[in-house]
Each structure stands twice: as structure tokens, then as C-alpha cells.
Amino acid sequence: MKYFLLLIACCFYAASLIANPHSAKSEPLMQELDMRLDPMPGYMKDEILEGIFLLSDKELMEARRDMNQCLYQYGFSRLLSTTLTDTLAFPVDTLMALLSADGSPASLLKQSWMLLETGDTISALNHMASIATEVNLPVTEISEIEQQQAFMQWLASNPLMDTTSLGSLSFFLQSHSSSVSSAARGLLIANGLLEYNEPYLTPDLTKSSVVRNPVKNSIIPTKSLLKVYPNPAHDFITIEYNTNNDKANVVVELSDESGRKVYSQQLVRQLDAIIIDTRHYKSGNYFVSLIVDNKIANSAKFVIAR
Asked: What is the phi-psi region of residue 16: left when phi exceeds 0, alpha when psi lies from -120 to 50, beta otherwise?
């Protein structure tokens, strides 16, 4: 019984790898394969690596979701940019309503800064403080809001900037918020208190893991293959097969000793291994037939013993 439970667990694990092909070629799994005492055949490992070109249903849904989000963000950004750059005066309420309809943390932050620009300092600070209670935010975004709030409080406390007050801006240059640090740096540069040279990044030529590329022309056994085990069987059988024809119509069939077909399955791969539950079959002799393009390409006999 424990072997059957182990088999079921393996089936679920194999199903998870099929549902998400990228997990089948994850670095931890590939390392485990490399450490096997009985090395995996090269053509099987190549087939695993070919999963780099496959996408699971989950990944396709995530891709569609991300695409829709990008289209929405593009349309929202275009509308916001058109409103802000319009030569005609526009009501502040219109822009506030647009940002409120979006409801993202970035839009809520823009609302706070817009209130500050219109001179409503108290409402701006109160709105900034209330963002964390209006939406659920991760720790990084909470930190961003806190740093922008501190910078807004500094601006509200220094409506008339001079050399003395601008000197305290050096504290904000070290802020983890790029918006805050760039705004503080811009104020210092504009007032001649800072010389700044834009840094440039060089590519990182190091690799954190081994690069594995699938072999385009895998070495696949040319001999026709059909193996059935264990024999005698009890709760299940494993069928290994190789049709040597990736375009053929392949079916595996089980029949009892009287010739009656008891199982049939369409196969979709040129070579693979499948597991069949035999608990509901009676004891006796059975035959496995590998049918390629409506012709029996190979057959094997096995026994079910209770």
C-alpha cells in the first residue's frame, strides 16, 4: 500500500510539472538530476530543458493579466498627461476625481501633492497620512509614503527657502525614496549648493547559476521500445514506450487473455512513460499493445496477481 501511495504522490508531482513547465527545469531540480547515482539519459534531460519554450496555463493567464494592466496604465497615463499639459485651465476637482478613480497608491500620492500645490497644506498632510489606512500596502510602499510625508512636512515648514534651510536638504539626499532624493537634489542644484554628475551603470557579466541550453537535435534511441513493469503487477503498471515517430498517431491498449480490450489511451509524445491503475482488474494474463498509425508496432505480456 505504501508503494501505491508513493506512486500517487509521484503522479501528482509529475502533474504539477506538466501544469507548470518552468518548475520542471528549475535549478534545484536540475541539480538533483545531476546528482543521481543512476544518470538520466541525455535525451530525457534535453526534453526537460525544452520546457524553456513552453508556457503553462497559469503563466498564460498571468501574461494576459499583465498585458491588460499595461494597457490600462498606458491609457490612464495618457489621460493624466493630457490633463496636466493642457493649455486650457482645468478644474482641480476633475484631476482629483481621475486620480481617485484609479485608486492606486501612486495616484493617492499625486492627490496629496496636488493639494499641496494648491496651497492646502493641512489637507495635503492629512491626505498623505490617511493613505496607509485606505489601501493595503506592502512594507516597501509604506516606507515610500512615510519618506514622502516627511519631505512634504519639511516643505510645509519652509515655505520661503534660503541657503540655511536648503542646507538641511542634504538629509533627504540619502532617502531610499528615489522621488524624495531626486527632488531634494534638484532643489540643491538649482540653488547652486550641489554639483552633481549623473552616474552610469555597467553590465554585470557574472552569472549566478549555470546556463543550461536545450540540445536542438536530441539523441533519441532508434530502437522501438515497449516495457511493462512490475511483472507480476498488483496495484499498477508502468509502461515505457518509444515510437520513433513524432508525427504518428499512437495508442496504447490493454486486453485480457480472451482478447477483450479493457483499456485504451491516446498518446501525445514520441517517447514517455505512463502509469495505469490496475486495482479494478481481475487476476490473470494481460497484453499491452503499442499501436502506431493503426498498426501494432510492439506488444508485451504481463500478469496481475492478487
From this structure: alpha
